[in-house]
Amino acid sequence: MTFTNRSAEIYIPENAKKANKIYLAIAAHPDDIEIMAADGILKSFYGSDNGFVAVVTADGGGSARDGRYKDFSDEDMMKIRRAEQKKAAVVGEYSTLYLLNYQSSVIKSPQNISIIEDYVKILKKHKPAVVYTHNLLDKHETHLGVVVKAVQALRALPKSERPPYFYGCEVWRNLDWLPDDEKVRFNLSSGENLQSALLGVFDSQISGGKRYDLATQGRRLSNATYSESHSVDVTRGMSYALDLTPLINDPAVDIADFALSKIDAFKKEAVEKLKKVLL
After folding, report:
1. What confidence category does residue 243 fall into, taking pLDDT thresholds of 50, 70 and 90?
2. Fewer Cβ neighbours under 10 Å: the N or C end of the chain?
3. Which CATH architecture does the domain made up of 9-252 adopt?
C-alpha cells in the first residue's frame, strides 16, 4: 500500500494478531488512540477472533514539552513519538499501525484530500466492523480536521463497505454533558493494567509535562461514577462517544448541523429540567 506522504509508515508488530473482526481507530496524534479507543483495544486484546488497527495521522512534532524533553527539536519529538506509538502497538497487540506523518496544518486544511484518499485505502483493506475517531465537538482543531476527513472517507466507500458502527470519542472535550439517550457508553472495567500500560508508554508526554495517563484514567472513573445519580456504580471505568453512524448512512446530512443538533438536545434537556424546579 502506498500513500501520498512518502514518510508514511506501516508497522506490524511481531506479536500482531490475525483476526476476522477488525476494530479500527483513526486519530490525530500519537497517544490519542490509547486515550479514545480503549474499547476497541480491549475487545481486540481479549477477543480471540478480534484485531485492532490504529491510524495516526499527524507527525507529532508540535507537542508541548518540558523536563528532559524541553530542549528537544520538533524532529526529535517526531522520532520519539513514533517510537512510543510502536511500543503501544506491541503492548496492545495491534494488528497494524499506520503512521501517516502529516503536519497539523495539512490535516486542518479543507482543501487537502490526500488524507481522505489514504483513509479510504486503509478502510478498504481492513473492512472494519467498528471505526473510532475524534468527536465533532472536540476543541482541538487538528482533531476536528481528522474527524471531518474520516467522515468524508467513509462516505466515499460503497454502501456495502461502510462499517455498521462509527463513533466520535472523548479526548479534548468530555462528552458527559450529552443527554443520556445521545451517549454511547463503553464499559472499561476490564484490563485496567493494560490501559495503564498503554497510556504509560508515552513518556515524552507524561514526563514532558502532560499527565495524560492520570487524566484519562481519572476521566474514565469519573464517568463511571457520575453516569447515574440514583444507583451504585456498575463499572470501574467508562468512556463516552457520539454516534456518528448517521453521517455515513446518509451523506446528505450536513456535518455542522449534525453537531449543532447535539448541542440543541443538551440545551433543551437542561432548560426543561431547570424549569421543573423554578417557581
Report:
1. very high
2. C
3. 3-Layer(aba) Sandwich (3.40)
